[in-house]
Specification:
disordered N terminus; globular; 16-stranded antiparallel β-barrel; 9% helix; mainly beta; 16 strands; 47% strand
Length: 391
């Protein structure tokens, strides 16, 4: 009871501090991210709030970071070579986050967690139907983390709705994009690696193909190394074994507010015991989106089977998320709730938390946030207050 009381006091202090900061800050800020600079428009055209994408922003990204109804003047340099698309001013943006945390599970009272991350982002059109995107962690939790997302996109291949991504991306991107979530708390089922496996639904290197039908049906296929995005080995190869992993997904937009989908993943990996682990994952997902509230639900069933043995392990999990905007996409305040659950034969990856997160847009590109996460297994709390800025 004393832990609960002290945690409530701490989060109240953090919330009051954020409110005071919001009241005393009144300077105009004019710095906006790269895509908004390119088209001379507000971030709210695509985000509500950033980094969460609106439908228009999702269409913009899927169109190779080009707005069909608006030209970016003088985007390419005039070199006199009609076959040369040379960006006049290479677009860059920065994302900066810092927090004040109180973690009862870690035994900490207060920790100044700032900067939590400093991210350098760049992306845009390289020419007709060709685009790129990458970001580099200048600092992530105090260390230089390097590249995560880094890909080239070939858009509308053959004049069709077929798009092709080549490079580094998250396997789960066609499901729910971890990089676009509002809470600091993650979608845990995408991250788990039971029994020391290298395979999960986060970052990998490979190819992703997407195709959208006029019926609102989207089909995605991925083939990836299945070894994450670590450094190359002594042979200058990224893949650490001879196997590849594949994922397929299909989703359908239903009338009005519902999108349903499902995916299947299959891969093999060599283990340190000269054996092979065969991994399969599958599960449904759903989004229900109204003007002021949206619900996201994901379920994943996973099996790790050692080929030629009786070892057959199961892991299952899910997350459920709700996002609320009091005034729709014009809101300066928002609130989210996130429930994470992972159950496994590997007890080390089991996870069960509930998170409440609130945010206020101090400016369109600056968010003040407060977050309370309760660990239902450890019966401990983590409280976070801080800022997220993009410019």
């Amino acid at each position: 009871m004393r832990k609960l009381y002290s945690s409530i006091v701490a989060v109240t202090i953090l919330a009051l501090a954020a409110t005071v900061i919001a009241l005393i800050q009144n300077d105009e800020l004019f710095a906006i991210p790269a895509f908004a600079r390119k088209y001379n428009m507000s971030c709210t055209t695509c985000h509500a709030p950033f980094p969460l994408l609106k439908d228009y922003g999702d269409e913009f990204a899927g169109n190779g970071f080009v707005l069909k109804d608006k030209d970016a003047t003088r985007y390419f340099a005039d070199t006199g070579d009609k076959n040369l698309s040379l960006i006049r001013d290479l677009p860059f943006a920065v994302r900066l986050e810092g927090y004040l945390t109180h973690d009862t599970e870690a035994g900490h009272t207060v920790d100044f967690t700032s900067p939590y991350l400093v991210k350098l982002l760049s992306g845009g059109s390289l020419g007709k139907n060709v685009a790129y995107y990458f970001y580099f962690f200048l600092s992530e939790r105090g260390e230089v983390a390097g590249l995560e997302d880094a890909f080239v996109m070939f858009n509308n291949l053959g004049g069709s709705e077929l798009d092709l991504y080549v490079g580094q991306f998250q396997v789960s991107d066609p499901l729910f994009k971890r990089e676009l979530r509002l809470p600091l708390e993650d979608y845990q089922i995408y991250r788990v690696k039971p029994f020391g496996s290298n395979l999960n639904l986060t970052y990998d290197r490979g190819i992703m193909a997407t195709y959208g039908f006029e019926t609102g049906t989207d089909v995605i296929f991925e083939i990836v190394n299945g070894s994450g995005i670590g450094e190359a080995n002594a042979d200058r190869l990224y893949d650490n074994d001879k196997y590849k992993a594949v994922m397929g997904r299909i989703s359908q937009d239903l009338p009005q507010v519902v999108r349903i989908g499902g995916f299947a993943y299959y891969g093999k990996e060599a283990t340190g015991l000269s054996s092979v682990n065969r991994v399969s994952m599958l599960g449904p997902d759903m989004t229900i989106a109204f003007d002021k509230v949206a619900f996201n639900i994901q379920y994943v069933e996973r099996r790790d089977k050692i080929v030629g043995s009786s070892i057959d392990r199961e892991t299952r999990g899910a997350f459920a998320e709700v996002v609320y905007w009091p005034n729709g996409d014009r809101s300066r305040w928002y609130a989210t709730g996130l429930f994470n659950w992972v159950e496994s034969d590997d007890g080390d990856v089991e996870y069960k938390t509930i998170t409440a997160h609130v945010g206020h847009l101090l400016q369109t590109n600056i968010r003040l946030v407060g977050e309370l996460r309760y660990d239902l297994k450890a019966e401990e709390m983590k409280l976070v207050g801080g800022f997220v800025a993009a410019f």
